[in-house]
Amino acid sequence: MASFLELIKGDQPVLVDFYATWCGPCKAMAPILQEFARRNEGKVKVLKVDIDKSRKAAMQYRIQGVPTLILFDKGQIKWRQSGTLPLVQLEKAVQKILG
User: Fold this and answer.
1) Residues sharing a CB contact under 8 Å with residue 5, sequence separation 6 or more, in sequence order
2) Residue 60 to residues 7, 39, 48, 74, 99: CA-CA distances in angstroms?
3) What's the CATH code, domain 11-98?
4) Residue 26 annotated to the active site
5) Are the beta carbons of 17 and 29 closer than 8 angstroms?
């Protein structure tokens, strides 16, 4: 299995959801991300990172609130947003960045 760094530096853009199991807004965001992943299969990979299990990654990307979404393209942060987003708004933001 590829490591986190290998995944975010790959050829396919990666949308990372930094979340926590105890977070209500994170639970609300989960089905939105599942639908986003389904609609963008083959274009954008969706990865979930539990900040309580991956404290190092959470600290490295300065995650202060959850959910926080970060879009990586070839290892570079292209977009970042904290809080929940409707599916339409999420898709528009990602399409705007990736073209």
Assistant:
1) 75
2) 16, 29, 16, 17, 27
3) 3.40.30.10
4) yes
5) yes
Query: Tell me, what amino acid is at 59?
Result: M
Structure tokens at 82: 């904290």
Percent of the chain with pLDDT over 90: 93
- Concerning whether 23 is annotated as a catalytic residue, the answer is yes
Q: Which tens digit of pLDDT belongs to each residue from 30-44?
A: 999 999 999 999 999
- Of the residues 7, 9, 10, 23, only one is catalytic, namely 23
Q: Using CA atoms, how far apart are residues 62 and 24, in angstroms rounded to an integer?
A: 20
| Given the residues 16, 26, 32, 94, the one annotated as active site | 26
Q: Rounded to an integer, what distance in angstroms lies between the CA atom of residue 94 and that of residue 63?
A: 20
Average of per-residue pLDDT across 46-54: 96
pTM comes to: 0.95
pLDDT category of residue 7 using cuts at 50, 70 and 90: very high
Alpha-carbon distance of 14 to 32, in angstroms, equals: 16
Domain ranges within the chain, ordered by starting residue: 11-98
